[in-house]
Structures are given as structure tokens and as C-alpha cells.
């Protein structure tokens, strides 16, 4: 009898301890939150537009300018970097003021905007109609209210200047932006950085597992940051280790074999893939593209882009942002903050 009472007392103590731990976990944890967002003000010299874009285009055309549409989001760290570190500083500030009528559009805004006589809607719906999937996105229009260049994501100052030159010179009448960039490349600006995860492959035709294709060349502003600040992080390497992480030289003319068994140069393959950003990342699974990034991402976003290409997550979620938000909710419930901005050690 005494033995049974002892067992009962031990069981009661164990249950009490478990309940205490569970209650502590449930009630003592403060929900996590998003950190790293950055507030910013669009430049005062942006046009105070009535958001009748066809009229804006006509006015810009009369002044020998193009219209620049800047799609942004409140708290977007990439937008803040673009505005404060580029638009508000020379040489871009003076160049933009001289050659562009710049108009800001909030992708979650409710202001009415008339893109054409046929299309009048809100900022939010227009962003969806134009398939704006990330901020900032810059759209440049010609004198006929037609898109001549679209830039998604953060770009270096030199890359933006090159894009703006392309439009200001009206080079779009003669050539694509990709060909324009190739004709104006600089050489020796960047030397490839070795990494134990990176492979060099000349035949992709038999690869069925997930591939993270890295496209670099020696005319790259962001490649050193990509290696030294982004893929050096433990959480990023943990995801990359589940890929075949393969680098090709976007300038190379040496023939390789692509996923479909074709012989093609990396230069031509990158052009065919329409990847003119460096370092460009394209994710493949079973030889099919599932996602890409054509701008420099901060760690949390890049980690979830990589997660999206693994375990068939691209079949479960329409976009990597949906996967990211789902995981954020899981982390918040565990009291973990998610930093969507630039880390302090960047």
C-alpha cells in the first residue's frame, strides 16, 4: 500500500511539473514580431502627380524626359536603401531630376490612379495587375506610355545609373537592356570567390536533384557582398547544402550541356534565361525552373527563397513569400522575432 502511494505521489509530481512547463511555455512567451523594417520619405523632388499617368507621360515628353514609376511599400528595407542611399545622393539625384519625372506608387495604397484611359483603379490593384511581386520595383515609360524597362529589387548605384542611361539615351529603340549591358561591361571589377559548396559543372543533363544556379561574371557590383555577407551565414549554408550549388560564368563562351541536353555557352544560356543581374540565382528541380532572384536579398528573404525550392514547396505555395509568411507565423508563436532587414553585421 505504501509502495502504491509512493508511485502515485511521483506521478502527481511529474504531472504537476509538466503542467507547469506547458503553462509557462503557453502563457509566458511573448509573441514574436517582424523587425528590420525601415521607414523612409520619398524625395521632395518627386513629381506631385494627380496619378493620371498618360498626362504625366505627355508632360514629361514635352520636356524631353521619361516617366519613372517607383513602386514601394511602407517599412520596406530595400526601398529605404534605394531612396536614402541612392535617389537622395549624387550622382543619381541630379541625373534623375534632369531626365525623369519620378512618381511614387504604394503597392498597398488606395489612391485612385489612371494608367491609361481604359485602366483606372487603385494603387494596390494596379500593382497586382502589373504583377509587382517585390519592392522596390522601378518601371520606366516612353513617350507612348509604354514600359521600356522594369527593374525589380535593390540595385547598386552603378547598376541603376546604367539602367537610367539606357532609357535616357533611348537605347531601347535599338537594343535590349541585356545587350546594352553586355556592350558596356567593365572587366576585372570582381574575381570569383572560392567556396566549398560551389561546384563547376559542364553537363547538367543528368541532374535531377534541386540545383541553385549561380550566374556571375567579373563585372559584378554585388558578388562580393553576396559571398562575404550572405552565403557565409549558417542559416543560408544549411539550405544551400541541400542543393547542387553550381556556378557558371555569365561571360564564358565555352560550351556546356544544359538540362535539356543542348550544347550552349553560359553567356547564351544566361541571356536565354533572361538573367542579366549578377549575381543571379535560379532554382531548378528536376531540370525545371521553380524560382529566381534578380536582386540582392537580405538573409531572411534569401533563406526562404531557398526553402521554397526544396521538398516540393513550390507545389504547396504559389510564391516563396507565402512560405515565408507561414513560417513567420510559426516563429511568432514561439516568441521568435524575424529580421527582414539588413543585419547589424552586414
Plain-language structure description:
The chain is an alpha/beta fold and 346 residues long. It folds into two domains: 53-183, Glutaredoxin (3-Layer(aba) Sandwich); 198-339, Glutaredoxin. The chain is built from 13 helices and 15 strands. A hairpin with a 5-residue loop joins strand 6 (137-141) and strand 7 (147-152). The model is unreliable at 11-28 (pLDDT under 50).
Identify the notable features of this structure and list them briefly.
single chain, 346 residues, alpha/beta, Glutaredoxin, 5-stranded mixed sheet, 4-stranded mixed sheet, 13 helices, globular
Shape: globular
CATH-scheme architecture of the largest domain: 3-Layer(aba) Sandwich
CATH topology of the largest domain: Glutaredoxin
What CATH first level of the largest domain would be assigned?
Alpha Beta
Total number of distinct structural domains: 2
The string of secondary-structure elements, in order, is: HEHEHHEEEHEEHHEEHHEEEHEEHHHE
> Sheet bearing the most strands, described?
5 strands, mixed
Helix content: 25-40%
* Strand order, largest beta sheet: 8-10-9-13-14
Per DSSP E runs of 2 or more residues, the count of β-strands stands at: 15
Unreliable runs: 11-28
Distance between the termini: 66 Å
What kind of assembly state do the chains in view correspond to? single chain
Q: Tell me the name of the CATH homologous superfamily of the largest domain.
A: Glutaredoxin
Beta-strand content bin: 15-25%
Count of DSSP helices?
A: 13
